[in-house]
Write a structure and sequence with these properties.
The protein has 401 residues and is mainly alpha-helical. Helix content is 78%, strand content 0%. It is built from 19 helices and no strands. The longest helix is centred in the middle third of the chain and has 32 residues. The chain is globular, with a radius of gyration of 21 Å. The two termini are 29 Å apart. About 1% of the residues have low confidence.
Length: 401
């Protein structure tokens, strides 16, 4: 299928159809998008072939940029004055505990230390996209939702830092292919990337307030929104830093610097649903069922221990910071999805431990397939049990689809 517009039509129709179908069995729309994408993708019907998927990277970049930006818009300073360090502590513990359990489990199996450390570090990453979609779909409100949005935003930075340290240790353990180890540079690099992402995001968010004052027309404001969200993402990609983190910071700075931020949030919610739908259908199409049989015991250990680490770390962090019982009980279940950042880290891992690159990639991609399917369902279940999704809201959402 070489006709790009025809492929776009297939993707959107698939999203609409499967979003509607899963609503009848009370599942989140994002699960339907992923399932629909898997069905029409190369693994099954091949209505959206692999050659076509290669040209849709820009859709993923745009969707992730807007998801991160809208998360940032919820970060009012008065909110952080109210909650203090709670999200930071929880993010540090849930990410660190996932790393420790996965690394420990792999070492207990007799895996090579460098392999166990690098794969364990990748376990820290959590993908915010599917989780945020569930929150938007069911319009959830409450302490678990508030804490979750903050934690997934911070998690990206924590994952990068932990992976940076893992990279340092891996280099110390394996001087592969003449890699020249610079210990100081390896430690400083992840911190520098995060600082640079903060600077880029803050600059974009701060500057964005001025054209929003100058242009009064809603069409122009929409153009400004799109331009500056893409500017934050594009600059980050140019500098090789976290696009998610920069876009989140841009949104956070704007929401505290401009009265136009609420209007930007409303505008974003109106224009992004088709973009998000396409993103998740494409993500589903990119999942490769053929790799599942090769996952083996290593993959199973990775999947299960990462879930256990996320849940235990979130529970301990919430208890330590004296969060509400609902946060300590249910937050961990909402942190299961893993996608973009983790897959990106596997690329870095290829240069750190090239002898294990193929194995790491298979494990992470297989885990992504599992996490992206069960993650939204578990998020909905957790938020329902926390009392932040009522049965009536779920029924209304189903009827609207």
């Amino acid at each position: 299928m070489g006709n790009t517009l025809l492929v776009v039509a297939v993707i959107v129709i698939t999203g609409l159809l499967f979003g509607k179908l899963v609503g009848y069995i009370k599942l989140p729309s994002v699960t339907g998008y992923l399932l629909g994408g898997l069905l029409v993708g190369p693994s099954l019907l091949n209505l959206v072939p692999a050659s076509a998927l290669e040209s849709f990277d820009v859709v993923s970049e745009m969707a992730l940029a807007f998801i991160a930006f809208t998360i940032g818009l919820s970060f009012k300073i008065d909110y952080f004055k109210r909650v203090g360090l709670t999200p930071v502590v929880i993010a540090l513990l849930e990410a660190s505990m996932a790393v420790l359990l996965v690394t420990g489990g792999l070492l207990a199996m007799g895996m090579e230390p460098a392999f166990a450390i690098v794969l364990g570090a990748i376990a820290a990453a959590t993908a915010p996209a599917a989780t945020v979609m569930v929150i938007k779909e069911y319009k959830t409100k409450g302490p678990v939702t508030d804490t979750l949005l903050s934690v997934v935003a911070i998690d990206d930075a924590v994952a990068l830092i932990l992976f940076g340290f893992a990279a340092t240790v891996a280099k110390m353990l394996t001087a592969v292919q003449g890699v020249q180890m610079n210990l100081v540079q390896s430690i400083v690099q992840p911190f520098w990337e995060i600082v640079l992402a903060l600077i880029v995001g803050a600059a974009v968010g701060f500057v964005m307030q001025f054209p929003l004052k100058w242009f009064k027309n809603s069409g122009n404001k929409l153009s400004i929104l799109i331009a500056f969200v893409f500017l934050a993402s594009g600059l980050s990609k140019t500098f090789g830093i976290s696009e998610l983190l920069a876009c989140m910071v841009a949104g956070a700075v704007l929401t505290n610097a401009s009265n136009e931020a609420p209007a930007m949030s409303v505008m974003s919610d109106k224009i992004t649903p088709p973009l998000y739908m396409m993103f998740f259908v494409i993500s589903g199409a990119e999942l490769n069922l053929s790799i599942l049989p090769s996952i083996g015991l290593i993959g199973l250990v990775y999947i299960l221990l990462r879930i256990a680490g996320k849940m235990l770390g979130a529970y301990l962090g919430a208890r330590w910071m004296k969060s509400s019982p609902e946060v300590s009980r249910y937050l961990g279940l909402t942190l299961i999805p893993q996608a973009g950042v983790a897959i990106g880290l596997t690329t870095v891992a290829e240069t750190l431990v090239p002898m294990y690159a193929a194995q790491i990639k298979v494990v992470v991609l297989s885990a992504t397939l599992v996490y992206e399917m069960i993650g939204p369902v578990l998020t909905k279940l957790a938020l329902t049990k926390a009392g932040e999704i009522t049965p009536q809201v779920g029924d209304v959402q189903t009827q609207q689809h």
